[in-house]
Amino acid sequence: MDSVSGASGVDPSLVSSTVADLPGPARIERADEVAKRLGVDPSSLALLASNENPLGPSERAVEAARHALVSGHRYPDPWCRRLVRAVAAHHRVSPEQVVVGNGSSEIIEVLVRTFVGPGQTVVSGWPSFAAYRISAQIEGREFLSAPLRRGRLDLAGIAALVDRRAKLVFLSNPNNPTGTYVRLRELAAFMNRVPPETIVVVDEAYADYVEASDYPQAIEDLLPAHPRLVVLRTFSKAYGLAGYRVGYGVMAPNLVRAIHLVRPVFSVSTIAEKAALAALEDTEHLDRSRRLVSRERAKLLEGLRNLGLVPYPSQANFVYVGDLPVDMPNYLENRGILVRGLSSYGLQDAIRISVGSPEAIRKCLDTISNRLKAGEGCSDGRDNIPVASE
Fold it and tell me: What's the predicted TM-score (pTM) here?
């Protein structure tokens, strides 16, 4: 029998030491598997775990994807040049400043692989998007993090970790999983404080949902003055293309050229590129998505507060709430409501609830209320298996 070590369960003689030390992959149960286990119709589930768009993709995007199917025997454009030009026009930057990837998560991985060498570090806040830490670990680079303060990124704490070894800093704004944000003046001061050789990556995956007037649109507000700034965006959230896997980064041309030395070619399919192009043009669908999240997020926050809970004020399409019974994710799942448990962050009593349809939000709030009324000691179902997702 092969010997195994660590949480991964992988034979350490087969892999590098950095891979052997990684935690084992989380088992993500599909919605249809949950429905089968519960004996219910999959359409009855409230899918509030993965920050997906409850409206789905734009019909124009779906139609564009259908048309692209007939060219499936041809390789895609390795540089996604049509989409690069469209994104550049959308943000009023040069096409030489844009790189497209298989979701923004691929660009995160490539950023670490391209720019962080031996002995250099990756810095972020914690808890934040787990891909920052995992990407550093895979490359064998040290990951340093500053704890959040009242649910927000502590920019002073993060800056204190940025020394001559720090090559990349990741800032999720709004932050996942808390939904909080850093203000323009705070981010501008941070950019002026970090050394000029440090690359700062502002991940704006949820920027399309932000309503705060002092939120920094980093591409417009900060990029022109900071040549080591990278801004990430995605089509997975407000555009509803999570299953297509398309994201992009905007940065100085010399950073783009470096990334293209490392980025996998053909990682974005023709179907995904055509769908993203159509989604970018469908501003009506984007506006509908924003309005739905704005309305239902307010209802979710109010409903949680009415239950005596204290959720963080969110600017994203999800809400973080703690001080819950530790079995809450199981309790909700066994009643057909899928939320994200946060025990993988060491937060045993917290969950992240995606903003979904009005029906899903009502069902979630009613079920949380029932569990709170039941008091301590109420537990049912299997152990919760935490996963790290966007």
Answer: 0.91
